[in-house]
Amino acid sequence: MARLFDLCLKELRVCLTTVNIPLGTSRHITTSSAAYVGSKHRFSKGEAANNSSYGPLVDLPDYTYLDGRPSELSQRQGLRRTKRIELASKVSTYIAEMMEAKKVHQIKLEQKTQEREELIRSQLKPKVHE
């Protein structure tokens, strides 16, 4: 483990010297991932991993009129809405295609079983002496 740490430290020194950062300066280097902080927690609660992907702060209008008329959507809100509508239409067509494929598959299975039954019925049967 110590050898691995020494190797990483050596590589870090090489990287810092190639970027012209003197080794004596106090620079903070982050070794953790640059993922969204708290994304696992928000996702476990059923929220978006990123606060700016969906939710009331993103989806609802920025202001309302006192007389009750609807406010205009911002350009990004309109784009998000059209993307979601397109995605919903694609999902519905894919679901319809999947249901149709299930029906066709079920019909094919029924035809195969009928053909097997007909084959069994059409086979020669032994004579029965009475």
Low-confidence stretches: none
Rg is: 33 Å
Quaternary state of this entry equals single chain
Structural class: mainly alpha
User: Share of helix among residues?
Assistant: 55-70%
Series of H and E elements? HHHH
Please report which band the strand proportion falls in: under 5%, 5-15%, 15-25%, 25-35%, 35-45% or over 45%: under 5%
Subcellular location: Mitochondrion
GO molecular function: structural constituent of ribosome
Protein name: Large ribosomal subunit protein mL52
Coiled coil: 95-122
Model description:
- The chain contains 4 helices and no strands.
- It has helices at residues 2-18, 39-44, 56-59, 75-122.
- The protein has 130 residues and is an all-alpha fold.
- The model has no long low-confidence stretch (mean pLDDT 77).
- The N and C termini lie far apart (89 Å).
- It is flat.
- Among the domains are: 36-72, no CATH class; 75-122.
Short description:
By secondary structure, this protein is mainly α. The protein contains 4 helices and no strands. One of its GO terms (biological process) is mitochondrial translation.
Question: Layout of helices and strands, plus pairs?
Answer:
Elements: H1 2-18, H2 39-44, H3 56-59, H4 75-122
Could you list some keywords that capture this structure?
130 residues, mainly alpha
